[in-house]
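Posting for a labmate who doesn't have an account.
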Amino acid sequence: MTLSIDSHFDSGNISLLDITGNPLRLAIELDHNSHFYQWFYFSVTGGKGQNDLKLCLENACGAAFPEGWQHYQVVASYDRQQWFRVTSHYRDGQLYFDHAAQYDQVWYAYFTPYSWERHLDILAQAQQSPSCSLESLGQTLDGRPLHMLTLGEASPEKYKVWLTARQHPGETMAQWAMEGLLQQLLDPQDACARRLLQQAVFYLLPNMNPDGSVRGHLRTNAAGVNLNREWQAPSLLSSPEVALTLQRMHATGVDLFIDLHGDEEIPYVFLVTNEGIPGYSPRLQQLEQQFKAQLLRSCADFQTTYGYPLDKPGQANMTMASCAVGQAFDCLSLTLEMPFIDNHNLPDATHGWSAERSRATGRALLPTMAAIMPELR
């Protein structure tokens, strides 16, 4: 069977350099109007039985986070439902992997994809709950709706909890985590979820960057803009996703904000806190400490040893979501990072970090929020 490679589908990204040799020579395409790239997603047809078939991503060294290729293993699937890791090696600035395919077609990706169709399916299911309503905050640059789910009935005495995912579209683990949280929160048999909905209203944006997601971007929207550097002065012309979200935040208020992300290089789950914002206070510090302590109890993958260096006082990047929101609303505001590679404290040789572990991390946020809710104001 003749070999063929395809990426002309939702979130697809690859450029074919040469298919006549072995390894197959490939390159990751840049985000539109941007220098960022690292996300890839493509299929290979005709590789069954070719036990020595090799693939090479030749421009890996120029990716946004080249250190992220160390210890990285490509994810693969035959049915686009179950994903597993294949042996990969980064050397001389190129990423090599080989795989003895068991079937005619196999899909390869940087991480388990989260399709726009799945996004729409989850929204359709969620809106049927009596606790949930669905709306669009407006349109993206490519004309897609910016969906928001509201869970719980709004009232002045209730806490306002906001969660966003996938500002960086290639960080699909963020939306998998949001899915886990959403499904748990809508489970009428879950006592923790029922208590939370009695105490708070939840505003969830499962995909903050629909255009970048469908285009197969790593980090930017349709204009090539990094949304998580737009929160100080967003523009409807270049970053409407942030402008529309901030507008609604100011209309509702915010008592707790969690921004879900993935980190390409650090093989652990960790939180980013707000020590560097101008309004940082002992109250916010105490809330951060309480949140971390509870998340350690509810999420076995979470840890506090590894993460980003702490910002010095007054030196936070105020263009980032968690910093801007924490400052604007004087609230507990956090970024939750999950790995692309694996959690090196609890490694999984077959799956590495996975969609299911991301969903479990999202679910673990519920008891964490329940424990800290009375302290938010």
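Reply:
Got it, the structure tokens are right above this. The mean pLDDT is 97.
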